[in-house]
Amino acid sequence: MTVLSGWWDDFFFGTLVVLKLFVVALILSVIFGLIGSTAKLSRNRTLRFFANAYTVIFRGTPELIVLLIFYYGTAISLTWFIQLFNPQIKFVDLPPFWAGATAIGFIVGAYMTETFRGAFLGVPEGQVEAAHALGLSKAQTFFYVRVPQMWRLALPNFGNHLLSIMKDTALISVIGLEEIVFVGAMATAVTHQPFLMYMVVALIYLAITTFITVSVAGLEQYANRHMRRAV
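That's the Amino acid ABC transporter membrane protein 1 (PAAT family) sequence above. Prediction below.
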């Protein structure tokens, strides 16, 4: 274990980067999922078309390919745009952290779109009609009536999406983000102990995903507490 003595700080800070990446990607995933599910349930045919295209593309393309296309695609696009104003600029790229978080947000957001869509359909239509009868606007009905009830139905699959976000953070090392997989690769190159170093990475991920699983289970029990009392 003396081999690890010089790497604990690197693993610690790499884990902090992973947690920050997870939080940002989670926020983006929820936003994209809510927008996508709302569009899919819309009466507007154009919105439904784009929402369907979004879920088909991002659920049907490997995560690593989406990440690479997004990272290099945004670099090319930003460079082209900046050169319109300053031709002397040679290259502009999006920081790996934000490129990775946004790519994961789009990917998992596509899955959340379907989860939220199914959960919205599970909200009794009578609740929506009652909200309209009380004079609530469409926006108020959405945020005060539909979303609070939708979350209880979405929680089981939502927990799976949280695990997907966390595991997908391991992909971001390929574009140069210094998180724990990157640290594991660097430590392996120095110590020539790949099994030990990647086992540490695996245990860190397992600890985080176990915490997520337990937390979601607790949220499910809390969300369904009124149903147990009714029985």
